[in-house]
User: Which sequence fits this backbone?
C-alpha cells in the first residue's frame, strides 16, 4: 500500500543520508520493492548530472554554490588520500561500479562521480557505470537489511 508518509521520509533520507539509509528504511518499513527500487535508482540518476556539472565547474572559473563546491572538494581530497581507493581506481570500470555500489560511508554516487571524472570517462559511459553500481548497491543493501531483520526476528522468537 502506498503511503505518502513513507515516500516523503524515503526521499528525505535518500538525499540527506544516502541510498543505504533510505533502502534500509524501505526494507524495515516493508515498502513495495517495485516502488522503492526504481525510486532509489531514479534519485541516484538525478544526482549524476548535478555532481558532473559541479565537478566540471570546480575546475573552471565559474562560481557554484559554495557549500556544494566545498563538499565536492572535500570528497576529492578524501579520495586522493586513501590507498584503498587508489587500488579501486586501478580496477578501472569495475572500480567505478564498486565505489558507487558499496553500502559504506564515503562511497556512493558522489564518490563514483568523482572517480569517473578523474578517469575522464564520458558522460554516457560514466552514467552507465554509476547506475549499474547504484542498482547493485540497492540490491546489496536490501540483502543485508533483510538478513539482519531475519536474524533479529530469529533471536526474538
Assistant:
Amino acid at each position: 500500500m502506498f503511503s505518502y508518509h513513507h515516500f516523503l521520509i524515503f526521499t528525505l533520507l535518500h538525499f540527506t543520508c544516502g541510498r543505504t539509509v533510505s533502502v534500509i528504511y524501505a526494507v524495515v518499513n516493508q515498502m513495495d520493492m517495485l516502488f522503492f527500487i526504481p525510486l532509489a535508482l531514479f534519485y541516484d540518476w538525478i544526482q549524476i548530472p548535478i555532481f558532473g556539472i559541479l565537478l566540471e565547474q570546480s575546475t573552471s572559473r565559474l562560481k557554484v554554490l559554495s557549500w556544494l563546491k566545498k563538499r565536492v572538494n572535500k570528497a576529492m581530497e578524501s579520495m586522493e588520500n586513501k590507498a584503498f581507493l587508489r587500488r579501486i581506481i586501478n580496477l578501472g570500470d569495475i572500480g567505478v561500479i564498486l565505489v558507487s555500489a558499496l553500502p559504506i560511508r564515503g562511497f556512493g554516487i558522489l564518490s563514483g562521480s568523482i572517480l569517473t571524472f578523474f578517469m575522464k570517462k564520458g558522460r554516457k559511459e560514466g552514467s552507465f557505470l554509476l547506475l549499474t553500481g547504484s542498482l547493485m548497491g540497492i540490491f546489496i543493501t536490501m540483502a543485508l537489511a533483510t538478513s539482519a531483520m531475519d536474524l533479529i526476528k530469529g533471536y526474538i522468537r
In short: Helices lie at 4-16, 19-28, 33-58, 66-80, 83-90, 93-101, 109-118, 123-156. The radius of gyration is 17 Å.
